[in-house]
Amino acid sequence: MKNNDNECIKWAIRAALFPPKDGKHAQRTSKYPVKDGINYEGIDFPTPMKQIDKLERQNRKLAITVYGWENGRAVVYRISDKEQEEDVFDIPLMLIESGAKQHYCWVKNESALNFDRSYCHKTYRCRRCATRFTREHVLEEHKKHYKGVNKSPQNKEMPKEGENILKFENHKKMMRVPFVIYADFECLVMKIQGCERGPEWENKSYTEKTKKHKACGYAFIVVRNDGEIMGSKVYRGENAVENFFESVFQEEERIRERMAEERKVVMKPKDWQNFKNATVCHVCEKSLIVGEYWDSVPVFEEGEEGEEYFG
Q1: What is the DSSP string of 143-176?
Q2: Overall domain count for the chain
Q3: What is the pTM of this model?
Q4: Is residue 222 domain-shared with residue 116, that is, in the same domain?
C-alpha cells in the first residue's frame, strides 16, 4: 500500500478484507473504504507489534499473523491463537523494518512468500514448525497438534550428515572421585531490627525483611570411594561458617597426603586376563590404539596366591 501516513497496519488489513472488485491498482489507498468497521481505540500509529494482541481483543473476527524477513527468508514473529477458530479472517502481515522505521503490508500469497526452490510445485508451510506439505488438507490436519510448548512458533531443523549422532563426552563424570565430604548446617532464625513504618504505609504494598538465618553449627563426614568413613566432625557454637571452612581446609590437606601415598594395585588372574583382552576403553568405550596402548602398559610381577601387582 502506498500510504503517506503512519497507519500502514490499517491499510494492510483493509487490503486483506476489501480487495478491489476490478482487481486494478490495489496499491492505491483510494481503492479501500475508510470506514472499515474495525475498532482501533487505544492503538498507536505507527503500531508496535505488542499492541496487535489488543487489536485482536477489540475485534473478535481478526486473526493476525506477523512475518519478518531475516537472513534471506521469511520468519514468523507472531501467530494468532484465533487462527483456527471459525468465522475469523486470517490475515498474514509482513513487518518490514529499517532502523527505527517499520511498515506493515498484507501477504497476499503465503505459499509464494515461503517458496523453496527445492520444490517444483505449490507447497503449504506450517507457520509454527516450518514443515512443508504438498496438500492443504494435510496441513489442516497437522494444525490440530502443532501448537507445541507455550504455543510458541517452532522451527524443525534436521542435523547434517556426520553431525547427527549424539555421544556422551563428559567421561570424567563417570569416574568415582577418591573422596566425598557430606556436610550439613543448622541455623537459628534471628529477628532483624528495623525502623517501624508509619500509618501512611498501611495502604501501600512493600516487601520488608524481618528475619534472617544465622548458622549455629554444622557436621560433616569424609567418605572414601570404597565407602569407608575417613573423618568426621560435629560443631556447635559461634562463628560456625568460619570454623567450617577452617576444618574443611585442614581435611583437604589430610586427603591430599593420603592420595600422595604410593600403593600397589592388586590384580587377580581374572582381572589381569580381562585387562590383556580389552579392546575398548572401559570409560569412553572407544577402540584402543594397540601400538600406543601396549607401550604404556606397566610391567606386572606375580605375587602370592596367584595375585599380580604393578612393578
Answers
A1: GGG---GGG------PPPTTS-------GGGGSP
A2: 3
A3: 0.45
A4: no
127-133 contact pairs (CB < 8 A, 24+): 127/65, 127/76, 127/79, 127/83, 127/153, 128/76, 128/79, 128/152, 128/153, 128/154, 129/153, 129/154, 129/155, 129/156, 130/154, 130/155, 130/156, 131/156
Averaged pLDDT of the chain: 80
DSSP letter, residue 226: T
> Is residue 78 domain-shared with residue 131, that is, in the same domain?
yes
CA distance 73 to 141: 25
Q: Where are the beta strands (DSSP E) in the chain?
A: 62-70, 73-78, 89-98, 101-106, 124-125, 132-133, 179-191, 211-224, 229-236, 266-267, 300-302, 308-310
Residues in the chain: 311
Q: Could you tell me which residues come within 8 angstroms of residue 71 by beta carbon, excluding any fewer than 6 positions away?
A: none
Identify the weakest region by mean pLDDT among 53-62, 141-150, 279-288, 297-306. 297-306
CA nearest to 10, candidates 96, 93, 74, 79: 93
Residue 165: inside a domain:
no
Does residue 13 contact residue 58 with C-beta atoms inside 8 Å?
Answer: no
Cα separation of 208 and 190, whole Å? 15
